[in-house]
Amino acid sequence: MKLLFTFLAFFSAIQLFAQQNIADVRNSVGQDVTVSGIVTNGDELGLIRYFQDGTAGLAAYGSKLANVKRGDSILISGTLKDYNNLLEIDPIESVTIVSSGNKLPNPKIMTIDRIDEDFEGQLIQINNVEIENAIGTFDGNKNYNFTNGQEKGVFRTNNSSPIVGQVIPTGKINIVAICSQYSYYQNDTRSGYQLLPRTMEDFISGNLVNFTSPVEINNISKEGFILSWETDVEASSEVIFGFTSNQSSWTNFITGNSTLVNDRYFHDVNFSGLEAATIIYAKAFSVLNTDTTFSSIGVFATESNSSGEIKAYFNTPVQNSLSTGTEAMNIDNALEDTLMAYINRAEATIDFCIYNINNSGLSNMSQALIEAHNRGVKIRFITCGSTAHLGADNLLPEIPVLVSPDNSETGLMHNKFVSFDANSIDASKPWVWSGSTNLTEGQINSDANNMIFIQDQSLAKAYQIEFEEMWGSAGDQPNENTSKFGAAKTNNTPHEFIIGGNRVQLYFSPSDGTNQQIINAINTSDNDLNIETMLITRSDLAYSIKDAYERGVEVHVLTNASGGNSLTVNDILSNALPFGKYIFDNSASATLHHKLAIVDANYAASDPQVITGSHNWSNSANDRNDENTLIIHDAEIANQYFQQFAYRFAENGGDLVVSAENIEIENVKVYPNPTVEKITISSQIGIKNILLYSATGVQIKKINSCNSNQCEIDFTTFKSGLYILKIQTKNNKFNTYKIIKK
Q: Which helix (H) or strand (E) holds 544?
């Protein structure tokens, strides 16, 4: 009897403890708590679950919640902790699903200024707001601002959310979401609040017509382009535009065409009669009856009259045997001298944006800028407040310098770019410099880096727009009151260009969703994917690499060190890729500082691409830092970057497979292929040189000339496998073939 009484008393105590209100335990940080409530989200937010009772809301985090779904009533025990000012139960001792399929609590309808600690962990609804920079589709792990015209709020999309990849709604909407918090400041109950929408159904539109695709630019020429989009119903196709970001000055309208194909409503508006290198600010809109839906402002550029010349340079060895025409250039310790040569020939303007600059141990970059200033070149200079930037201090007082804010919330001004003579009347004068290289002795003389120069006026103007957003003005002097860095910046530059006949994309962080653009490029890989980046900390990038391998792409990944990557990334890639495909840079004591990927480098028909710039593959780069990223669709440039990658990957013991495409010139024949004993090479033009390489780029055989128009190579002593044959004819044309030895 005594035992039964003791058991009943214990059970009653547990039940009583379980009846604690969530509001009562929110002051119990560091203590074990037991509470109950209705869960308001599922795995669309990852492992975290939010739940609420009639008094308040709370979060819980851990793998024990994997099977907990929206609408479940749970009883949960664990330790309450403060995670960046969000109260959550972690670790979880136990969780019990009491019932499922329960009606969710009604969201509390409120205004932006009322979002605070009282509503953390609860469903809320904000009405009649607009998403700022509603351009394109949603990215994962990204913050978005919304506004009612006076106050601003923030919502965040999670990587695992079905919202990722969906079109960002435009116009007035209502947002239903969970109120969460992430703040850099301890015990902060006033800032860092962010809403967490769960699905697209949490964005409620009252419009009769809605955009179902982003506004995209196509058919770019020197005279114009086409803007295209889709809607959910039949409506008009119209664009209002101007030549500045000030909408009040826009007076131009164009009406286009609408077509219905397979229950999808397509819209096209054709721009014509423009000048080369013109920047257009535009809003597409569609009208149905009395309802009009506008896109956000998009910025677009016509093709320029520039040459489109692109020059890439490296400061580490390259494997020129893999060249398909243009040999990659290793200029060793002369990277800064090369940049100075462009400074020395600038005529009107230099907009210089650099994370760190120090002349010690290098040629004097500051002196080159001073000399440019003295000959009348207008120089504007931006650098990062988190670095010593001693080279900026060496400039003349007459050269204006803006130092970015130095705080964790703003992030780093991590750019490395220069725009030369952007507005010159001579289209051959504008150049852009970019890449991964900071202007310090270690970066130039030791660390592995690349820099790239592009002769294009449209691109130079786009970089100038970004520069002036940080500068705070279009004038000679900066305006710190209107200057914007980090998350304060907007998506306000063109992203698509035709340069030298090839597509080039440009994205700035954190405003432009750069991480998703990198993923999109990786997802286009059909044959080979070669990644050489200082670090990878984002799991979505790792999963996109894993997916590429699983669909049959030849994948090679080289990062600086395993410790620079997140544990999750290391686990994903080491488990997904075979031995020798995911390696670390141990061949030199210095840092591998590239931030690049090469997509389908050796397959000209598969849209070869190079991704390069200042953007590390990290959350900080995507969410806070000022960065720039180029995606260059050019087989020749991709091959040059691959020559550098191949050398370093092989140097570190990587298992490199060169999946070279047959690049055949007329009147050259190679047979039989595959072969067992020998191959014959013949050409009516005449053969100048023949080079044979292993799949890893090691030269096996060289024939300087043939006595006739036909040569043979004996393969009987070679191992079975893939070989690369490079032929130079007497008219100096190159031919590249894959040879299979059985």
A: helix 539-550
